[in-house]
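Preliminary data (for renewal application), 2-phosphoglycolic acid complex.
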Amino acid sequence: MRICGIDLWKFCSISMYHIIANWKMELDFKESLTLTKKILQGLKKNRKNDNIETILCPSFTDLEEVGKILKKSKVELGAQDMFWKEEGAFTGEVSAKVLKELGVKYVIIGHSERRKLGEKDKEVRKKVEMALKASITPIVCIGETLEERENGLREEVLFRQTRAIFKNLKLGNKKIILAYEPVWAIGTGHAAKPKDSCEAEELIQKILDEYIPEKKQKQITIIYGGSITSKNISGFIEKGKMLGGLVGGSSLNAKNFLSIINKISKK
Ligand code: PGA
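Predicted structure:
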């Protein structure tokens, strides 16, 4: 059911927010473990956060030990990437199967920092398919660069990237998290405005309407990423129509990350 462009069914049926920590290549092994413990301690103190799925994405090499610490908690383990082939002679790549063995439930795919290194829409799509096959929820990133934005290409870029993910995709009963991450907002301290994320959400929604049957759209959650802090997260949730955030810099400090989670507890 749609009123003023808003799919009410979707909003009624999804009650969870997703807050995802992307630690990139910023922490060493010990730092990852210490930060994990601090985040868990902080979450224990806040009992009102059961409407939030918190996900930590450390480096591949830290997944196993971070996973052990998370084992008895409600916080989930995520990876920062994976390969699109099941197994084989692919030096340096990491398979979905290995991630599953380590307890990984989510995987970031198509982050702009990987697209910048050469990852194409086609590879992003293949990784999404492999993640779904392995029952790992993909957190797929899309977003325009500053140049594309200034040249009025935002719509075109979002359309191309979203279509590459969803056209003829066999979603089954699996979930996908779609992160709108304008590249110019990542790691810059200049977050987008809630109005930007709202416009992007409406645009993405239109594309989804074309490629995903309405009854399956509730399996797709749209979140925002790019210079999120505890000061701006509420705007993206309340005005920007986002159901969570992908957090880089602000997730590297337990206090900052926890204050983001606290801001949306029981919203
Ligand atoms: P940022 O990173 O929060 O540091 O901007 C977000 C991301 O890269 O996902």
